[in-house]
User: Which sequence fits this backbone?
């Protein structure tokens, strides 16, 4: 007893633990405000395990127990087993095709009796560990493209299963691993290309291809004029500029329409377009035939998603500067926002606590991220650092996309808000991610491989 | 290598911070700058429920309530709960078939959605209510009864005075934009309901409710922090004597016309009968629309309050005023004599004005026997008075008297749609005959209350109050007091005594003498009441409808008792034929007796009531039109008439606004087409369009009698 006590408390990053518990508590209160109606018996429903907030309360309790267990383990466990765990994760994802339970149209859940497990979620942990393990290999030369390819394969292999499970949104999360890879020396051009592609994609959604082609061409011309002298000295720059221009044109004019017409399912492209409140311009012809002749009155799924985003924006926008007060949001209480306790949990905070509350939450998340980056940089071992960056990137991707989704800046792709959204799977994933980091951080002086 | 890449942590931090800043900016525009979402949220999330207070109750002179509230039920339905109820039984009870039932439910779903309670059948009749209430438990919770307050009339009387409420239409909403009315509200449309709308309606309460995504009300917003409480309308005490009113309406059965009785000392209206009337309860409850259409189409215009909205030539009742002016102007004295040799030849012999009683009369006797020649001479002297330089100023002087007596302008009674009547002015004649091209002889029939003079029955009654009081009156009004105070300052003008001219009592005494003679030994003997000195004056009014001479109107006005007068009263029976003394006088006599004695017990008098109320004096023309309409109605359903354009628009209310009665008359005439009987509003030439009136003036100024 005497010896164990310092093990669990010593060198633990209490800031991180505090941030974790604060955000998780806020999440619990938000779920409570979504479900609670005047006159409900809170104690009774907590005991009866019926309401979502009571379930989430028990999930949180379970997560705390698991967190304590993680803190009690030896760090070497995590360096010893990543590849095994990764294999188990992939196996679990394969199992969903056999044992899977269909929830909301995607067959990605494994029923465990007391909760449903979503392997795509948990596999993030294993992937992080596996990536860390691979990159911390002493013999590795990450400047070689072969090792870069292997790292990319580790990160992006689970995407394949995710897409097969009809969970495209969750698959995108794995692109977050670009950041730790970048930190470890992955050529920045890939990150730049990734980000520019993202910006271009959003712009293609917001405007027509013609507008965009004109805009890109203008920017190219301006760049040529601006770099006139340099081009005279070095004609390679002109070549680079023109090739970028041509690539962009290809991307905007051919690749994106091709993607929407032939690669994405109709509901997927509809989803993406619903975010900006536009009809899907690439499958218009089919749509006219379908909607007008066959089912003129039936609401399509994209209408429903339009409705989601609209209601979400109304709830957040009506919060004003300081919000309507806890349990006083009319949109939350009136069940206007669909899926409010899971993907749209931010709306209840935005409505009840307004801009001030939203900014405080954003700052909490930002502090969490920067703290993790700070922790990452103080590690002696590459394994811990890569793992920390993986955790930060995953959380960042989730927070950014989820909140953008609720305020109409990103398509509704079913990504949860870390530690806040209702759901045992998601909460467990982030708890484990963070507490493994805390455990590793406690041994920051050791070199782990 | 890790050292080499350490600067990259800053890039990563920058990416984190950059995206979070973008999100915060977006949140700022969404939550702080844009107000659109706030409005959208309130629109869908908050329901503003209006709580209607009870309307005020209206009491009569003896504090009996004559207009109050009662509750009636709406049958409500929540479509998504219908599953499993015995539809067949329900349809049987409601007396509809299952196709109708389905159609109505589907209509409601389209309009209000699945889960919101809405009205299946409004205002259930008592019989239906009794049947459905028994088996209600079988249909709940899909169906339930919801009570609502409607107006009820304990007495079957005074319909036109009390008025009715109706759902406001778009026109009404346009005219009263900032008074908090919304479509679906009820507001007073006629009578006291209209003129005291502000007092009776009370203050509406507003409750803010939270509403959920299925449009159900969940709970009050912030525990009712922003709610306002509904305040019931104020009760109103009127001077109407409901028993007197009932008697008046009984006497006027099967007749067209009106009775107005005023307490001369206060100007308080005691009874105000407009015949034909209707059962006031017709205007409430489930059958309202049907009844309204019938009443609206009835050629005898039961919805018109004739006491204030109909104008007539006053006939010989006008002579009392002529006498007052003559005496006060000094052109005659009480001893001035004129004789009647069969006609008035003051304007030459080509167009003599006949009189019935041959002989020579002084003022008193001239009033008593209603001598035309006498008053033609009086007015001739007034108009040709050398005191004035020309006819214009003399007539203007005469007009001034008439205005002072309450004629030629709206009195300002507290009822809507009052008409001003007409007192001819010099400008009026200048327009017809040209400047300076007319003299007394052009309008000599005005001297005996024919021709261009138009008065409302209320003005005549008020003129009697003026004479009874010897020179003053209060503006006639129905409402005495408002419970809880006159917050809207509507009653103050009825508390000011109006004494526009100062005429010595002696002059009034002479006129009173003449009027007493009318009842005691003259044309108005029918108004005699045992042991009460009644002063009165008959009138037999010639009138024209579309240029065709109609049966005379029978007029009688008077007051009683002569000393310390307590009631001033007038009665007109339209197109009854015969003389003023024949019908109007006995009706007035009975009314006076009822009011002053509180009850009529004498068998002879009771028999008289029965005899008069049994008389059918509906003019043949109106009777014919009613019959014709009935036969059309019998052959075709009323709704068919609507669809065939028989009636152009299904108006639900008469838009009786003070500023547009003329338009409304036109509207009514328009509402019939070639197949329908043409009807005018009032069967007197007084309301004919101006041009028609002018042509009449020129052609028909011949020989009014009596």
Assistant:
């Amino acid at each position: 007893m005497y010896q164990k006590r310092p093990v669990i408390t010593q060198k633990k990053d209490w800031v991180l633990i505090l941030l974790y518990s604060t955000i998780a508590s806020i999440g619990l209160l938000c779920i409570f405000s979504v479900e609670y109606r005047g006159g409900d018996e809170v104690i009774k429903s907590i005991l009866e395990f019926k309401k979502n907030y009571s379930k989430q309360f028990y999930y949180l309790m379970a997560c705390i127990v698991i967190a304590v267990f993680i803190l009690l383990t030896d760090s070497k466990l995590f360096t010893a087993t990543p590849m095994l765990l990764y294999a188990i994760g992939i196996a679990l994802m394969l199992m969903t095709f056999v044992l899977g339970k269909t929830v909301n149209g995607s067959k990605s859940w494994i029923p465990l009796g007391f909760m449903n497990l979503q392997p795509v979620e948990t596999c993030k942990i294993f992937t992080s560990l596996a990536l860390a393990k691979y990159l911390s290999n002493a013999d590795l030369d990450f400047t070689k493209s072969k090792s870069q390819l292997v790292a990319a394969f580790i990160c992006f292999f689970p995407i394949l299963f995710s897409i097969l499970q009809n969970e495209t949104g969750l698959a995108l999360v794995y692109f977050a691993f670009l950041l730790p890879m970048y930190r470890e020396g992955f050529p920045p051009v890939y990150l730049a290309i990734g980000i520019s592609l993202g910006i271009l994609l959003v712009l293609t959604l917001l405007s027509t291809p013609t507008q965009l082609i004109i805009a890109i061409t203008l920017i190219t011309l301006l760049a040529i004029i601006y770099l006139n002298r340099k081009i005279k000295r070095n004609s390679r720059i002109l070549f680079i500029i023109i090739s970028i221009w041509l690539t962009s044109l290809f991307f905007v004019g051919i690749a994106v329409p091709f993607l929407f017409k032939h690669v994405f399912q109709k509901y997927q492209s509809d989803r993406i377009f619903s975010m900006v409140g536009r009809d899907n311009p690439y499958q218009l012809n089919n749509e006219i035939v379908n909607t007008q002749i066959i089912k003129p009155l039936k609401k399509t799924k994209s209408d429903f998603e339009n409705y989601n985003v609209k209601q979400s924006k109304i709830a957040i926008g009506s919060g004003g500067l300081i919000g309507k007060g806890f349990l006083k949001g009319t949109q939350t209480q009136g069940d206007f926002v669909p899926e409010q306790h899971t993907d749209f949990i931010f709306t209840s905070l935005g409505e009840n606590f307004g801009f001030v509350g939203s900014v405080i939450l954003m700052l909490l998340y930002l502090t969490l991220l920067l703290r993790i980056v700070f922790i990452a940089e103080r590690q002696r071992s590459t394994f811990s650092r890569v793992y920390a960056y993986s955790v930060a990137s995953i959380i960042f991707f989730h927070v950014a996309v989820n909140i953008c989704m609720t305020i109409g800046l990103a398509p509704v792709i079913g990504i949860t808000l870390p530690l806040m959204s209702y759901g045992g799977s998601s909460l467990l994933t982030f708890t484990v991610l963070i507490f493994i980091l805390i455990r590793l951080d406690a041994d920051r002086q050791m070199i782990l491989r | 290598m890790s050292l080499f890449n350490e600067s990259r942590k800053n890039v990563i931090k920058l990416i984190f911070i950059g995206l979070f800043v973008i999100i915060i900016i977006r949140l700022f525009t969404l939550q702080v700058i844009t107000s659109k979402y706030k409005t959208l949220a309130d629109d869908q999330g908050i329901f503003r429920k209006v709580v209607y207070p009870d309307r005020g109750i209206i009491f009569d002179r003896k504090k009996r309530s004559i207009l109050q509230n009662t509750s009636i039920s709406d049958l409500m339905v929540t479509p998504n709960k219908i599953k499993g109820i015995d539809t067949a039984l329900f349809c049987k009870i409601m007396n509809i078939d299952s196709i109708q039932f389905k159609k109505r439910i589907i209509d409601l779903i389209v309009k209000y959605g699945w889960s919101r309670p809405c009205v299946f059948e409004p205002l259930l009749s008592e019989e239906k209510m009794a049947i459905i209430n028994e088996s209600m438990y079988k249909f709940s919770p899909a169906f339930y009864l919801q009570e609502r307050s409607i107006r009820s009339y304990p007495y079957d009387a005074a319909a036109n005075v009390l008025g009715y409420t109706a759902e406001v239409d778009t026109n009404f909403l346009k005219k009263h934009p900032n008074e908090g009315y919304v479509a679906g509200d009820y507001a007073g449309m006629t009578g006291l309901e209209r003129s005291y709308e502000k007092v009776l309606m009370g203050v509406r309460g507003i409750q803010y409710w939270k509403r959920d995504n299925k449009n159900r009300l969940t709970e009050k917003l912030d525990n009712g922090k922003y709610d306002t409480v509904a305040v019931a309308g104020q009760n109103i005490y009127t001077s109407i004597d409901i028993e007197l009113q009932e008697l008046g309406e009984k006497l006027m059965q099967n007749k067209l016309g009106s009775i107005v009785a005023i307490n001369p000392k206060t100007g308080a209206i005691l009874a105000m009968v407009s015949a034909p009337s209707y059962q006031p309860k017709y205007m409430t409850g489930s059958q309202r629309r049907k009844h309204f259409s019938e009443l609206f189409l009835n050629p005898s215009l039961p919805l018109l309050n004739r006491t204030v909205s109909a104008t007539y030539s006053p006939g010989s009742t006008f002579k009392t005023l002529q006498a007052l002016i003559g005496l006060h102007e000094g052109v005659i004295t009480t001893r001035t004599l004129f004789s009647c040799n069969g006609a008035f030849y003051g304007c030459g012999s080509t167009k003599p004005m006949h009189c019935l009683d041959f002989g020579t009369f002084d003022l008193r006797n001239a009033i008593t026997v209603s001598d035309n020649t006498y008053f033609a001479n009086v007015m001739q002297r007034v108009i040709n008075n050398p005191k004035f330089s020309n006819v214009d100023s003399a007539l203007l002087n005469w007009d001034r008297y008439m205005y002072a007596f309450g004629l030629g302008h709206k009195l300002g009674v507290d009822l809507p749609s009052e008409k001003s009547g007409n007192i001819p002015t010099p400008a009026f004649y200048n327009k017809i005959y040209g400047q300076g091209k007319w003299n007394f002889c052009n309008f000599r029939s005005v001297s005996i209350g024919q021709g261009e003079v138009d008065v409302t029955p209320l003005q005549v009654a008020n003129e009697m109050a003026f004479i009874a009081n010897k020179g003053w009156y209060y503006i006639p009004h129905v409402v005495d007091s408002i419970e809880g105070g006159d917050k809207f300052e509507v009653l103050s003008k009825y508390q000011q005594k109006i004494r526009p001219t100062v005429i010595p009592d002696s002059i009034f005494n002479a006129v009173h003498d003449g009027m007493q003679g009318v009842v005691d030994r003259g044309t108005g003997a029918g108004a005699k009441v045992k042991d009460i000195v009644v002063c009165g004056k008959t009138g037999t009014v010639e009138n024209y409808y579309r240029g065709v001479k109609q049966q005379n109107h029978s007029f009688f006005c008077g007051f009683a008792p002569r000393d310390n007068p307590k009631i001033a009263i007038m009665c007109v029976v339209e197109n009854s034929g015969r003389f003023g003394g024949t019908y109007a006088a006995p009706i007035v006599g009975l009314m006076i007796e009822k009011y002053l004695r509180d009850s009529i017990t004498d068998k002879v008098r009771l028999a008289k009531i029965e005899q008069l109320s049994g008389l059918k004096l509906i003019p043949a023309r109106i009777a014919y039109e009613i019959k014709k309409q009935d036969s059309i109605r019998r052959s075709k359903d009323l709704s068919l008439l609507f669809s065939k354009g028989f009636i152009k628009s299904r108006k639900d209310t008469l838009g009786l606004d003070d500023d547009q009665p003329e338009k409304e008359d036109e509207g009514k005439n328009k509402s019939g087409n070639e197949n329908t009987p043409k009807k005018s509003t009032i069967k007197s030439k007084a309301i004919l369009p101006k041009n028609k009136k002018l042509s009449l003036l020129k052609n028909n100024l011949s020989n009014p009698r009596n």
